[in-house]
Amino acid sequence: MEKHGLSPGSKIAKLHGNSMTDKIPLISEGEALDEFLDELQQEHEIKEIAGWDSGFANLNRALDGIFPGLYLLIGPPGCGKTSFAKQLLDQVAMRNDAAAIFCSFTESKKELRIKTLARLSGIENKEIRRGSAYLLHWYGVPRLTGDETEQLSPSWEKVRRCAEDARGWLDSIFLLECGKITPEGLEARIHEVRTTTNKQRIIAVIDDCQRVGDLAQPLRARLPLLTEQLYALAKNLNAALLAVLPDVRDNRELAPPTWPENASGADVVMVMEPDAERMEKLSELPQAINIHLVKNRGGERGRLSFAFHPAFARFTEVS
Fold it and tell me: Which residues contact 235 (CB under 8 A, 6 or more apart)?
């Protein structure tokens, strides 16, 4: 399979002679204007956003939707990064007829499937986990016939029905348990998913992305090169790539906007952290979480507020 990603330590080659002009005709913006206006005129659909629907209205407005490119999601342990990334991936696949691949180094396929079922059904993940005798491969949908359905509680019937309703878009989602993987290996798997589904739109999540590539150096030292490699991969594949990373700021007291200097190659940098002030005002169980858009090439920066329900692996936006 042809490789497009930059290898570690590689640099973009210099152009020699007329290599660019030999391949790409030189066209002025004036010459290209009519064709571009015709292209815009043929777009009859009224869109609130230009990119793909993320399933989060406020995030859509801030990013103008999801586009091919590199997104970083950074945060401390236990704030729900994996749950948010899985929910975002599911919603993009469901709402945009897109293919999706979730690469995990720590959570098993079973745990990721339970997160999806809990979010869709409103049944707590611990209850689904305890009922694992009912769960078969492929999102745990029991194959029941006749009167067998009466043997299940209403909650399990709800899980089963929600899973069946989701089967159409789940067919476009693939889970990968990773031991060790390189950017080239990621590229090969994303190619495979695109070929299998025959879909051009594709989103990929790399959870615990710090485990990709050479682990000899600490993450902070190799982060700039890693983001450049992933940026090149996203652009070459025309895919939306969400890399989930731990917070490596030396001083956690520093404001989240200090992050872009460590990840200059990304299109969007999102820093997730608990909202201690809002948490004090909550009388119920949801955790108060903020996502700071500290870098956004396509739109505005700012802060988005969410309520995180760990029992259901579900994020909801807060106005």
Answer: 68, 69
What is the distance of C-alpha 153 from the center of its chain?
34
Most confidently modeled range among 70-84, 244-258, 286-300: 70-84
Alpha carbon of 118 to those of 25, 59, 83, 87, 313: distances in Å?
Answer: 53, 23, 11, 11, 7
Query: Distance between CA atoms of 270 and 244, rounded to whole angstroms?
Result: 10
Looking at domain 51-318, its CATH superfamily turns out to be P-loop containing nucleotide triphosphate hydrolases (3.40.50.300)
- Interior/surface letters 89-108, b for 16+ CB within 10 angstroms, e for the rest: bbbbbbebebbbbbbbbebe
Tell me the per-residue pLDDT of 184-198, one tens digit each, with 9 for 90 and over.
989 999 999 999 999
What span, in angstroms and rounded, lies between the C-alpha atoms of 302 and 292?
6
- How far is Cα 71 from Cα 81, in angstroms, rounded to an integer? 13
Q: How far apart are CA 218 and CA 210, in angstroms?
A: 9
Q: Specify the 3-state DSSP secondary structure of 158.
A: helix
Mind listing the pLDDT tens digit for each residue in 78-107?
899 999 999 999 999 999 999 999 999 999
Give backbone dihedrals phi and psi of 271, rounded to 5 degrees, phi first.
-110, 120
- CA-CA-CA-CA torsion sign (243, 248, 252, 256): negative
CA-CA distances (angstroms) from residue 297 to 5, 55, 300? 22, 20, 8
Task: Give the pLDDT confidence score for residue 262 in this predicted structure.
Answer: 62
DSSP states along 216-263: SS-HHHHHHHHHHHHHHHHHHHT-EEEEEEE---S-TTS-GGGGGGG-
Q: Contact at 8 Å (CB) between 65 and 51? A: yes
Distance CA 81, CA 83 (A): 6
SS3 28: coil
